[in-house]
Amino acid sequence: MTTLSASLISTEWLADNLGAPGLTVLDASYHLPAAARDPEAEFAAAHIPGARFLGLASLYDAGSPVPYAFPTPAQLAERLAGLGVGPDDAIVIYDDSAIRTSARAWFVLTASGRSNVAILDGGLAKWRAQGLPLESGTPESASGTAASFTAPTRVRSKADMLANLETRAAQVLDARSADRVFGSGIDPVHGGQNGRIPGALNLPFTSVLHADGTYKTPAELRAAFEGAGVDLSAPITATCGSGVTASVLLFALHLVGVDDAALYDGSWSEWSADPATPKAQGPQE
Q1: What is the CATH number of the domain that holds 68?
Q2: What does the chain look like in DSSP terms, one character per residue?
């Protein structure tokens, strides 16, 4: 069985270990509607050899009233078994998305009890840039033994966030761009008004990445979080538009040793749609 030595691995490591026993590579690409891209078709056209398509866009709990809700343990088990992923396999996740969706897949898996999971640093873009091999086509259907997942404890509800407004027990960190968090116009991504949960700090998810999509060093990440006013020794709940880019911050927090940070599942999509929730606009209060 392959054991991953880190949660962030290089393209060189993956190129040297493709096909190793017990190693599964998953494409977790997912795009915002405005990108007008079909990740499954792009996967069929070119992907890392041996990879399987996770279908992250459909990996959510459709029975929940929360937009793009965290998947249930049963859904996770069914999806991975259907891709032929064994219960003890090491999993390397990559994407080719502007919103770095491999972090969402990493958080979903690890927060639900899966270990031995890593992100490919720089994703498919770096793999391509280095001239590493690609293959086309859709892998044959596979089936594996269903793994056991647990209900995540690091996911927060709207009720939790409302309660936190009273206690301020956790810092709220918004991963969206500053114009969406502090502006007063219409949200260009999800619609509705721009704004934020009162008291929320802001660190755009792009701030933890280099221009090529690789993650910054731990020292650089610490500086970014602290520069945004985050106390890394205190509880943190990350939020964004729909729970995707907040996961980039959660992975970056993991890289600096913070493994108890949580995700507000509904994020701004849920919060802004409820007339009863308090909202802040304009400069930081």
Answers
A1: 3.40.250.10
A2: ----S-SEE-HHHHHHHTT-TTEEEEE-----GGG---HHHHHHHSB-TT-EE--GGG-S-TTSSSTTPPPPHHHHHHHHHHTT--TT-EEEEE---TT-THHHHHHHHHHTT--SEEEETTHHHHHHHTT---B-S-PPP---PPPP----SSEE-HHHHHHHHHH--SEEEE-S-HHHHH--SB-TTT-SB--B-TT-EE--GGGGB-TTSPBPPHHHHHHHHHHTT--TTS-EEEE-SSSSHHHHHHHHHHHTT----EEESSHHHHHHH-TTS--B-SS--
Q: Annotated catalytic residue: which of 240, 244, 246, 258?
A: 240
Quote the pTM value: 0.96
86 is a catalytic site residue: no
Q: How many domains would you assign to the chain?
A: 2
What domain range includes position 198?
A: 155-273
Confidence check: pLDDT of 143 > 80: no
Residue 147 in this model has a pLDDT that exceeds 90: no
